[in-house]
């Protein structure tokens, strides 16, 4: 049986959404404080703003340090590419013109609370996953599929943490 699915070059995406029983401004404040994110993630270990920045703005940069059982430890520089309070917050990982990933939060008032979605796109720039694909090109689609399911699970966990904090 041949594995079918997305390849890395297809720039696969995943999105998870949740409804939060809290005002949009509260949810926005939590999500736009990237220093809170490591406490909500198994992979992301720390975040540090660069170039004197202390909060998001288009063009601001931050370093994220991550760890994964299969991929080891790594560090990436992210560039804020969209920042429209309180609607959208997004960043590109590594080279904003050819990112290894793009992450985006979208916020909308809904039913007296907030609809929050987190979306991510893998690629097209090289990432740690590229080394696994280089080593096993015949398994590329399976590698991409497994990593995208990991992202989906991790995003759901992050959103649940945000929901709990916002509703507390």
TrEMBL record:
> Where does the signal sequence lie?
none
Name the Gene3D superfamilies on file: 3.30.530.20
What InterPro entries does the annotation carry? Polyketide_cyclase/dehydratase, START-like_dom_sf
The protein's superkingdom reads: Bacteria
One family from Pfam that matches here is Polyketide_cyc2
Transmembrane segments in this chain: where? none
> What's the protein name?
Cyclase
Specify the species: Streptomyces diastatochromogenes
């Amino acid at each position: 049986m041949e594995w079918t699915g997305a390849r890395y070059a297809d720039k696969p995406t995943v999105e998870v959404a949740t409804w939060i029983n809290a005002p949009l401004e509260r949810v926005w404040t939590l999500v736009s404080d990237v220093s809170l994110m490591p406490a909500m993630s198994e992979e992301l270990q720390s975040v540090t703003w660069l170039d004197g920045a202390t909060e998001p703005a288009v063009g601001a940069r931050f370093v994220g340090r991550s760890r994964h059982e299969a991929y080891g430890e790594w560090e990436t520089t992210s560039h804020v590419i969209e920042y429209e309070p309180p609607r959208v917050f997004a960043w590109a990982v590594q080279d904003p013109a050819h990112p290894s990933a793009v992450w985006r939060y979208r916020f909308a008032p809904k039913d007296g609370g907030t609809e929050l979605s987190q979306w991510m796109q893998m690629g097209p720039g090289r990432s740690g996953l590229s080394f696994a694909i280089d080593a096993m090109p015949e398994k590329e689609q399976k590698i991409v599929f497994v990593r995208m399911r990991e992202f989906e699970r991790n995003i759901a966990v992050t959103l649940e943490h945000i929901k709990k904090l916002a509703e507390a």
